From TrEMBL:
Residues 98-261 form the CRAL-TRIO domain. SMART domains: CRAL_TRIO_N, SEC14. Coiled coil: none annotated. One of its GO terms (cellular component) is membrane. This is CRAL-TRIO domain-containing protein.
Length: 291
């Protein structure tokens, strides 16, 4: 069945993708079956947490952890801790409550195509395109969080990973003020500790001099692994093309594809289509009244 441009790929991975999983993630039918059973057993022993034990769900955590069940459980525990710490922000998260941020403001977008390595490419307009009075930094985070919940359902994304492009074109003091130290710490903690996706690269584009104020907020929280995957390109798109092939980029970033003419308005129905997964995710984490 052919996919619509604004939909995700939930079909089982084919032979080519499974070869990548075998090579990069240690995934074989035998390793997968053993790791799933080990993780189920560990979850049953963890009396303070609740997560689904369905195989498709457990693979969300096992793949980025290279099928080491104990590492996957530690990730689930970090996610539970993050949800607990940010309970007011993430409790009972609903796409419809963030619909206006999706459809009326072009802040977060996803390329309809993957890059040459099969990775999803997330675009975040952090500069003039973002009006913090219309979309607060908390709303921006919730939109990002909802998108990651849907992306984690794609086997191809679980295996190949994601790339984030941060476009700071036209950044001014009003955006800098919205990117507070608390927001910076929350976002970096989420990316490093509580996001069950393989983040392969972060590309920072079109950043003006004032961006140094933003970087000063984020830098103290960034560990070496993430720091090694962050690349600064300014206005030089040729530097970006060393990482993402121009044939997979829109003209907005010096690519061969047409300029972007879509955004959150087109992607919102896709997010809402997976409301069951989002609602289920809201129930996962630490059990109430368990210390």
């Amino acid at each position: 069945m052919s996919l619509k441009p604004f939909d995700i790929e939930v079909d089982a991975p084919g032979d080519e993708l499974m070869e990548i999983a075998r090579r990069e993630l240690r995934e074989t039918p035998e390793t997968r079956a053993q790791a799933v059973e080990e993780l189920r057993a560990l979850l049953r022993e963890a009396k303070d947490m609740h997560f689904s034990e369905e195989e498709a769900f457990l693979l969300i955590f096992l793949r980025p952890c290279h099928f080491y069940a104990e590492s996957a459980l530690k990730m689930m525990r970090r996610i539970a801790e993050f949800k607990k710490t940010n309970h007011p922000l993430l409790h009972a998260l609903k796409p419809e409550e963030e619909k206006l941020a999706f459809v009326e403001h072009n802040v977060v977008n996803v390329l309809t195509n993957r890059d040459q390595k099969g990775r999803r490419v997330l675009l975040v307009n952090c500069g003039a395109a973002w009006d913090p009075k219309a979309v607060s930094s908390e709303q921006l985070f919730r939109v990002f969080f909802l998108i990651h919940l849907v992306a984690q359902l794609e086997p191809a994304t679980q295996i190949n990973g994601v790339v984030v492009v941060l476009d700071f074109d036209g950044l001014s003091l009003k955006q800098v003020k919205a990117l507070s130290p608390s927001f910076s710490k929350r976002l970096i903690t989420f990316i490093q500790d509580a996001m069950p996706l393989r983040l392969k690269e972060v590309h920072i584009l079109k950043q003006p001099y004032i961006f140094n104020m933003v970087w000063a907020l984020f830098k103290p929280f960034i560990r070496e692994k993430l720091k090694s995957r962050i690349f600064f390109h300014g206005m030089d798109m040729r530097k970006l093309h060393k990482h993402i092939d121009p044939s997979d980029l829109p003209a907005n970033y010096g690519g061969d594809r047409p300029p972007i003419n879509y955004g959150g308005r087109e992607w919102y129905p896709c997010v809402y289509n997976y409301i069951d997964h989002i609602n289920q995710w809201n129930t996962f984490g630490f059990l109430p009244n368990v210390q």
